[in-house]
Amino acid sequence: MLAADFAHLERDIRCLEAAGAKILHLDIMDGHFVPNLSFGIPVVEAVRRSTELPLDVHLMLQKPQQYLAAFRRAGADILSVHIEVAPDPRVLFDEIRKLGAIPGLVSNPPTPVEAVLPYVNDCELVLTMSVTPGFGGQTFDVRSLDKIRRIRRVANENILISVDGGIGESTIASAAAAGANLFVAGTALLGKPDIKKQFQLLKQLIVNEND
Ligand code: ZN
Predict the structure, then answer these.
(1) How do residues 7-21 score in pLDDT, each as one tens digit?
(2) Catalytic one among 56, 94, 164, 194?
(3) Quick check: is 27 catalytic?
(4) Ligand 1 centroid distance, CA of 194 (Å)
(5) Which CATH superfamily is domain 6-210 in?
(6) Residue 187 Cα, ligand 1 centroid: separation in angstroms?
(7) Residue 29 — very low, low, confident or very high, per pLDDT cuts 50/70/90?
(8) 9 contact partners, CB below 8 Å, separation of at least 6
(9) How many A from CA of 207 to the centre of ligand 1?
(10) What separation in angstroms does the CA of 161 have from each of 5, 129, 207?
(11) N or C of the chain: less Cβ packing under 10 Å?
């Protein structure tokens, strides 16, 4: 949703729904964990009021534990926390489950995959950042593919293996080949004149890869 036109948030959500999006991904930035700021609780609430789609709330926060309940109340279905600020993320996973939400784990490009691997099957979504988080519209870091491959190797069947950053026509097939099964696309979708057509194109690239 970071690529949305916030003056026409509901219109953009309708377009994504009509195109076939299964989950909406919301990037929350605190100006500390990442140098940038994005949006906060009122915007998550507004998105919640506008759609029935599950909301995947990606917490790029220095202290995610302080905000879990607030984002859950705002309507988050999935709450994803960064390994870089949660050395033992299982404590946060437990808290997220107690709130009735689904826990996810995220790692930044410089973080070795070994930091993530022990927790892959303790949560339901493992997200690999393929750009340095904090800004939209960056290019895809190909080193993330090896991370995804290694996560895929240890992950149970039902784990969502997600990739976030620089996903588009030129990168989505290789992310799928590496084992990703959930793709976060911002500008690659909302930046296009025909969102539905672009969604179909991206989907086709994944299907071709899995054939
Ligand atoms: Zn994100």
Answers:
(1) 999 999 999 999 999
(2) 164
(3) yes
(4) 23
(5) Aldolase class I (3.20.20.70)
(6) 12
(7) very high
(8) 1, 43, 46, 47, 50
(9) 23
(10) 27, 11, 16
(11) C
